[in-house]
Fold:
Amino acid sequence: MNEALKEVLDLLDLEQIECDIFRGRSPEERIQRVFGGQVAAQALVAAGRTVPSDRTVHSLHAYFIRPGDPVIPIVYNVERVRDGRSFTTRRVVAIQHGKTIFTLSASFHIHEESVSHQAADMPSVPGPETLPLFRDRMRGLVGDTEPWRDWLAKPRPVDARYVTPLTWEAHRDPSLRGSETQVWFRYDADLPDDPLLHVVLAAYASDYTLVDTVLLAHGLAWGASNVTGASLDHAMWFHRPLKVDDWVLYAQESPWSGGARGLAQGQMFTPSGELAVSVVQECMIRVANP
Structure:
């Protein structure tokens, strides 16, 4: 297990400071704001710690309200909205500097047998082992130059292998623009067999590439375009258990953008082709001198 993944697991081990009140921290690195996937994952951990172990999360709906300050801790207040016979509902408010920066509603459900179907087939794509590492692909674009050298040398908690073009590639070559992104990802370690942990880590990874799907359609790229962006809201539905220390195919598309906003949606498939998670996110996209 590399140091980056150890850091993520440590970030998800929230400190309980009172009944239904938890405190989380951010990585000790120079970033302008807290990564949205981290806040969503920590909030889901806080909610999950107040729910009986026989109930697993099946959906979450979240709003990013203010940028998170990476210098100070985030306080997560959990409201026990409902404890029913089959479903449990929790609402989490993340607070910094006395103000709400993020809200999350999550629903948990006992296991029940019922009818089942899956309309979407997993896309036919090359296997992850046949695809280059993200850092190797980026290094081929930017070379061994500063500040890219240090950024690419840093270990990453998630091993991501892109099937489709990177935003930087589409920025340089307009013929590579498109509204679909397909990425294999996994956490490269043997993780504990804890269903909540795997769901939380899926939520953490879900925010990595969704906004990029909107950028890809326009040939925009972080650091290469006059573009700023942020997640506005995020929703996930967990259909069946998945193991994120095994490969997951994250198939994403952006059906629309306009008015300084973009919509992206994604589906996570297990290696055997089972649909495990559905994701939808709206983001803010602003381009200076487009």
Summary: The chain has a mean pLDDT of 94.
